[in-house]
What does this fold into?
Amino acid sequence: MEIGERRRTNVLVLRPVGRIDDLTSAEFQSRLLAAVTSTGDDLVVDFSSVEYISSAGLRTLMTASRLKPKERRLAVACLNSIVSEIFAISRFSYVVPIFTTVEEASAAWHAPPRPEPAVPHPEAQAAGPLRIHFWGTRGSLPAPLRARGVRVKIRDALLAARGRTLETEAAIDAFIDSRLPFSVRGTFGGDTSCVEIITGGDEYVICDFGTGVREFGNHVMAEHDPAAKRCFNVFLSHLHWDHIMGFPFFRPAYIRGNLIRIHSSHAAVSEALHNQQSEPCFPVDFRALPATIEFVALEPGQTYQIAGLSVTTIKQFHAGDSYGYRFTRGGKTIVYSTDCEHKYSNLDQSYPFIAFYRNADVLIFDAMYSLADAISVKEDWGHSSNVVAVELAQAARVKRLVLFHHEPAYDDHMIEEVFTDTVRFEEISQPGHKVEVISAYDGLELDL
It folds into this structure.
């Protein structure tokens, strides 16, 4: 295989000719690895004379990307329409940057560096109102909607539509939005715990690595330049599977230059995440992840300034211990309190969670079980009920109570029934303080 070579302002340019396939990829790899390991120059592969590249050829680029020194840069340029399509189908833009021309790559790499923005004081970092996005709301294990569940929803919708004139798309949309209950027109979702607090700042804030973090990661990659480096602040409630099992599928962890700070009060958090991604449990070792991952220890009861938020933790009642988080900024407070089994015979102001929840704008609360289950067959399983949720929210004068960590055995109709019952219980039990009750679902977004 013919491979030309030239230099351009500290950039080495390789120009292979013909097809890069099973017959030529070994020669291409040998030349490519020699180039990325033997010189100090950045490297661009000029594909203007390449007719086709097979999976073997793409693999050589992957190998070079992994073996090159960290400070060296590798890119490709001048792809024809066929090769460009192969790169797109293979999602290789996430592996190697693609430029239209060699000159474009060189210019991008050697442009004058932009001045680093000043890091604001945490209290001055507010860039808009706080928002909450729920990416995963199930407890214990994922509970995907299956074919039978979809059929039931379609059937219920068609039964509700009998006798109505729905001749336009607008009429259909209005019927769905105004006449169908949420359990028919939507779904509470099946992903496990992952909640994003949107601060308006440059850093992301999320609670827990349940399976919902996969969709969150996909959202970040779709909304922003995949090559842009991001900082993710993650607050782990605890280390049970349903709260960490999404991390191996979190795409930003596979992007070099991203920073993931994992905040936790568990001494074993690093060990748990390493073990989850080790033989024989998972094919990609935790230590092989390209992103920079830091573990930050938090002391319960202490207040920290993180990503523009004041953050306080509390130890909760759960097997192996779990921790709740209170996030405050600009007079607004969000409390994330999942996987806690509240037991009290006399609820008064001495109960520590009343002070922790006090005057929260939003309390995200594990209401997985009915009260009957929570104090009988599922006692000491580490979760609470909708009844206890309302009592604590009322005692702490919480504004909005979000039912969370839904029982995976419940379908959408059953979760909706729990929500309806909870709203009614709040109405008949309120001691003069009104609490708005909300049932979380995957995709719910709340403004503060």
In short: The CA atoms of residues 361 and 415 lie 23 Å apart.
